[in-house]
């Protein structure tokens, strides 16, 4: 094969009859002949060079080099000029018909004419290039170097170079293009991305439907016979007569999985994991608080059996309070591990050691991922060996890459083999395929319960949670076949009215003052995209006066943040300016209006921000200030499933009156910020 390739390079066809020895001899002879002829060619030059004096030779050399460089420059300039023209032309002729579309006869004839014209141009150009190359390739100078270089290579290679070069030039001139030195790749045309149909797994495509309209789908508490009398009484005591749709659907499903006790699922099998995707303010918290408390009511020994993980301290505190209020008449103990207290104080509230024996002081732990990982790694007495429920609230946020590590640590700890546990009835092994051996003896299952208003439909992301035969409860029904969109769609609360307000950057602060002072929207929860922006706006509104204002961001300590929320909840504050720290899950009673002072960058943030109003079946209004092009924002919101975004125009004349005072305030604000920055530097 090797020889046949070499023969083809030499322009000879392989003879079937000739032996490989004779072929190799012929090849050797040919190569020797070629080397000789080259030697002969270079000989007169070398002799001539020897004859001339060294000084003259140098002079000639430098002269030729100069000439060559000048010509090269000229050629470069020309070819650059021509090149641009040429590239366009070449593209015209080389674009395949399926890309450029099938040309008509006229176009085709025009193109052939163009081609002919170009051929002459490019041939001329090639000649020009050829001249220059021949000047540069004068055997007395540069070619010597070239020969030296090729001589270092194998004979076959030499032959290949010598024969391949004219071949290439023939090909180029045959094509009639001047682009012998570069290759046109093509394929830069704008192509419309092909829309693909998304096929969802059955459990995602066919969820158990939760009605969106809370008020017309209330379920009387008396009908919820699956809830134990103690908890029903508790609910009544808190003024709850009816359950919301999400609660009416999810509570029985979780309770069903503990019908046979904590150790085994229905029919002796492992219970299915549960995912809930329901609008903001639809009552998802009670949908897991009630069944978890009921499932653990009969427990004998206090062990951590339920772990609730939430993204922020404030949310953890909120859920902790709900758990405490429903567990208060039971023997269950709820503990929070979210960094509100010192690590050692949390450690002491989670477990105690008496007489050398450690015992758990918590049945239900409400935690943030950071503190949870701290306890897993540093708290020797913290055990998750008896964990039955892992509840992940704001599940989509929690599964974001940066928060992933905690989940694997929890699973590792749940299935950790402790010394002497091999024969224990509580022995647990990481679940694998179901076999007779794996079912006997039965082990306590770990059931995952996921909740969010913006639960992803991305199976790849959900896969990371290692869900077991998941069951989805959702406020929407997306058919696996009809779904062509790739973006997740969300359900917005029924009572929410959404508006956008076109404005300019300088008018934004005036607009917010207008909403509070003139339109008397109170209380207002306002969102900015950064803590600096929240702080500046807070100072500005405070300086302007007439509005009780507070800020809420990571700029403040957790104590200060708690204070701000409390004051806002109690009605002492009219305007709370926050970053996205308060966008998720925070349940503040009576927020009638949400203002997105800065439009959110991601749709999920928008859904959660506007969801701080219109909660629990009530009505609410959300405004988003939009700078410049609003089409993109409108599209984003509509594609996410918003029922309708309306335009709200505030005429500039209305803001005129406020402008003089605003000017004064701006001056003061500048001074304050400068002082603050100076203080920060020292
Ligand atoms: N059955 C009910 N009857 C009356 N009010 C209820 C009921 N269930 C929940 N609520 C109230 O509805 C409000 C919203 O509930 P919750 O905070 O659980 O909503 P959510 O779905 O978790 O919202 P988000 O997605 O924003 O976290 C709370 O103030 C809660 O007390």
TrEMBL record:
PROSITE patterns assigned: DEAD_ATP_HELICASE, HELICASE_ATP_BIND_1, HELICASE_CTER
Domain of life of the organism encoding this protein: Eukaryota
Keyword RNA-binding: yes
Ranges of compositional bias, category Basic and acidic residues: 53-73
Region (Disordered): 34-74, 94-120, 143-178
UniProt keyword annotations, A-Z: ATP-binding, Helicase, Hydrolase, Nucleotide-binding, RNA-binding
EC code(s) of this entry: 3.6.4.13
Family: Belongs to the DEAD box helicase family. DDX51/DBP6 subfamily.
Domain notes: The Q motif is unique to and characteristic of the DEAD box family of RNA helicases and controls ATP binding and hydrolysis.
PANTHER family listed in its UniProt record: RNA HELICASE
Protein known as: ATP-dependent RNA helicase
Gene encoding the protein: DDX51
């Amino acid at each position: 094969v090797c020889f046949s390739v070499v023969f083809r390079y030499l322009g000879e066809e392989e003879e079937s009859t000739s032996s490989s020895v004779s072929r190799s001899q012929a090849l050797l002879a040919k190569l020797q002949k070629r080397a000789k002829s080259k030697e002969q060619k270079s000989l007169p030059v070398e002799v001539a060079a020897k004859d001339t004096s060294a000084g003259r030779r140098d002079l000639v050399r430098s002269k030729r080099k100069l000439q060559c460089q000048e010509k090269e420059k000229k050629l470069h300039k020309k070819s650059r000029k021509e090149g641009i023209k040429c590239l366009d032309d070449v593209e015209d002729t080389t674009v395949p018909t399926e890309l450029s579309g099938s040309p008509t006869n006229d176009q085709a004839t025009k193109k052939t004419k163009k081609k002919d014209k170009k051929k002459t141009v490019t041939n001329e150009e090639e000649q020009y290039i050829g001249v220059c190359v021949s000047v540069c390739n004068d055997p007395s100078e540069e070619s010597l170097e070239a020969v030296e270089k090729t001589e270092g290579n194998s004979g076959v290679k030499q032959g290949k170079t010598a024969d391949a070069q004219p071949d290439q030039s023939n090909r180029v001139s045959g094509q009639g293009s001047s682009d012998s030195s570069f290759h046109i790749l093509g394929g830069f045309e704008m192509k419309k991305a092909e829309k693909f149909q998304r096929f969802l797994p059955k459990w995602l495509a066919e969820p158990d439907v939760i009605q969106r309209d809370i008020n017309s789908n209330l379920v009387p508490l008396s009908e919820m016979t699956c809830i134990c009398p103690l908890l029903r009484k508790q609910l009544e005591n808190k003024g709850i007569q009816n359950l919301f749709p999400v609660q009416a659907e999810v509570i029985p499903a979780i309770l069903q999985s503990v019908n046979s006790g904590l150790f085994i699922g229905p029919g002796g099998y492992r219970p299915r994991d549960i995912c809930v995707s329901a609008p903001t303010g639809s009552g998802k918290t009670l949908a897991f608080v009630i069944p978890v408390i009921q499932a653990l009511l009969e427990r004998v020994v206090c062990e951590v059996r339920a772990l609730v993980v939430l993204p922020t301290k404030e949310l953890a505190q909120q859920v902790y309070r709900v758990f405490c209020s429903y567990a208060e008449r039971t023997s269950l103990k709820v503990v929070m591990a979210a960094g509100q207290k010192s690590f050692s104080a949390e450690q002491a509230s989670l477990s105690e050691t008496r007489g050398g024996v450690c015992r758990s002081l918590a049945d239900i732990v409400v935690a943030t991922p950071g503190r949870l990982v701290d306890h897993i790694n540093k708290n020797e007495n913290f055990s998750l060996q008896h964990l039955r429920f892992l509840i992940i609230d704001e599940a989509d946020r929690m599964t974001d890459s940066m928060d992933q590590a905690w989940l694997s640590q929890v699973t590792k700890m749940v299935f950790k083999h402790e010394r002497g546990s091999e024969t224990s009835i509580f022995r647990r092994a990481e679940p694998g395929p179901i076999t007779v051996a794996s079912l006997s003896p039965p082990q306590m299952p770990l059931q995952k319960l996921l909740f969010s208003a913006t639960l992803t439909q991305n199976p790849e992301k959900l896969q990371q949670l290692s869900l077991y035969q998941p069951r989805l409860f959702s406020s929407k029904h997306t058919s696996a076949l009809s779904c062509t969109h790739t973006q997740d769609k969300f359900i917005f609360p029924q009572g929410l009215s959404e508006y956008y307000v076109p404005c300019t950057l300088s008018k934004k602060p005036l607009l917010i003052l207008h909403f509070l002072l003139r339109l008397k929207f109170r209380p207002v929860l306002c969102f900015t995209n950064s803590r600096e922006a929240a702080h500046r706006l807070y100072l500005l509104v405070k300086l302007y006066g007439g509005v009780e204002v507070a800020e809420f961001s990571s700029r403040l300590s957790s104590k200060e943040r708690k204070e701000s929320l409390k004051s806002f909840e109690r009605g002492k504050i009219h305007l709370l300016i926050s970053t996205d720290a308060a966008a998720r899950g925070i349940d503040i009673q009576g927020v009638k209006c949400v203002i997105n002072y800065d439009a959110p960058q991601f749709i999920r943030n928008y859904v959660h921000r506007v969801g701080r109003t219109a909660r629990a079946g009530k009505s609410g209004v959300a405004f988003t200030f939009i700078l410049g092009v609003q089409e993109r924002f409108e599209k984003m919101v509509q594609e996410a499933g918003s029922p309708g975004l309306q335009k709200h125009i505030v005429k500039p004349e209305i803001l005129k009156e406020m402008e003089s005072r605003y000017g004064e305030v701006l001056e003061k604000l500048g001074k304050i910020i400068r002082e603050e920055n100076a203080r920060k530097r020292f």
